[in-house]
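Worked example (supplementary).
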Amino acid sequence: MSALQQHPALPSLGSVYRTRAGVEVKEFFRQRESVVFTVFFPVVLLLGLGAVLDYDIGYGVTFPQYFMAGVVTAGVVGSSLQNMAIHIAGERSDGTLKGLAGTPMPPSAYFVGKIVQVLAVTVVTVGVLLAVGVLVYGIDLPSGTQWLTFTWVVLLGAAACTLVGIAVSSLARSGRSASAMITPLALMLEFISGVFIQFSQVPTWLQTVASLFPVKWMAQGLRSVFLPAELAAEEPAGTWELGRVALVLGLWCVLGLVLCVRTFRWVDRADR
Amino acid sequence: MTSTSTSVAPGRSQPLDDDAAISIRGLVKRYGERPAVDGLDLDIRRGEIFALLGPNGAGKTTTVEICEGHRDRDGGEVRVLGVDPAVGGRAWKAGIGIVLQSGAGDSALSCLELLGAQAAYYADPRDPAEVLELVGLGDKAGARGRTLSGGQRRRLDVALGIVGRPAMLFLDEPTTGFDPEARRRFWELIRSLRDLGTTILLTTHYLDEAEALADRVGVITRGRLVEVAVPAELGGRGRAPAVVRWSEDGRRRSADTATPTAFVLDLAARLGGEVPELSVARPTLEDVYLTMIAEPAAEEVPA
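After joint prediction of all chains, the assembly is encoded as:
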């Protein structure tokens, strides 16, 4: 190649990753709509439903105590699935992705930035929810090894939902249409997965539908840390099934990753 | 039209020019059955501003996007800075800059933050603050992307395209939405980039812009390059007869002439001094361009 001159070295992967992580975290937390939508929606849910449905579940468990698992699940789904689907669709339709694809930024850096963003948003959302739960309803926090279960369920659930969210973003024409598509879908899944109501009150056939998707398993895994062991009897299998929680969430990670690799596009479909 | 000398003979296959900034031979791109680019040849020299003209759907954007590495091709050879864009890696992308037509305008980051992030992808970037000055956004360094006006956003797009110090810059309709004064300032910026050694491929619908900026212009119709010339020579414009218009006996008169100076001297002598409503005009770039892109239709009209 005669025409190539000596080029100065391109910046290291690590430094580009740091740049993208900074961009993604700033982009999220500076957009009031996304902060309100993602962080405060589950908080309002907790306060609203907690105030209306203040009854005893049994074994001295109050509704807010039961509801914590659901509302944390909703927080994780919002931080990962909805956040990714809506914002990546928006970045694809407004040309941000196309612009990045024309720079020497390594493609992996874009996804590293998104992962850091999801982690940051998840930590903030879950942190606020736990704080509100403790301060307003005096809920019992997990203790000892329950924190370990709490952490892996949240991380594995967030990973699965992030990957599915990235894949789903390719189906929408714009951020707005992604929002119109994914928001009702997420609410519906949350509803049949026992996020807003007791899962045992969901009709059996809907429980079966819900158990195909990750939301139900995330909520079930989290119930195991917020509820006394006696309430495991109310679960469909009569136990918390933590092994199956890990298995199903893991499978959704694999499925999401495959879908991402096969469907991710830097350029809008209308743009051919 | 009997255009001579500079027109591009289709099908003649020269080897790729390795010294050119862009060299294209026999480029083909089809969307379904329809060929959008149909055997296009083009060489763009290092350090020139080249304007690509053509009606919508002629294959302009497709050609440019193939050169940028954004689109696959169905046939032909392409080299941009000596590398095939279809396999251009990070090092190659570091040498090109792309100013997009859409542009990322919904950002919550400030102009300086956006440019700083963009600069961090490149090996030898320009200073982000200096680039903002260069595009006339020096006082908008702290303003968020989404608060900018249309013209300011466009200039931010240009800043994002040049902050990596590209050797080859792609500009897609850069001044759409500019007011006349902003366009003039923008043209100065583009000329100063060329003076720094940047090769620039410009697509535009404004023929005055092509005339003001371009060292050479190429016209694409129906997926082929029909002519490449300096703006003053396009479509035989340099040799075209001048049109002299004047008023005589209360009537508007006009005449085509290859010797307008002698014609006007005769006219002045005949009418005894000042010629009423006199004008002498050559065909504008727009005149010849419109003739070129309408050519096949014009042939059907009996002369």
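Two points are worth noting when inspecting this output. The first strand of chain B starts at residue 22 and ends at 31. The interface with chain A takes residues 18-19, 31, 68-71, 81-83, 90-91, 93-96, 98, 100-109, 113, 117-118, 120-124, 144, 160, 164 of chain B (CB under 8 Å).
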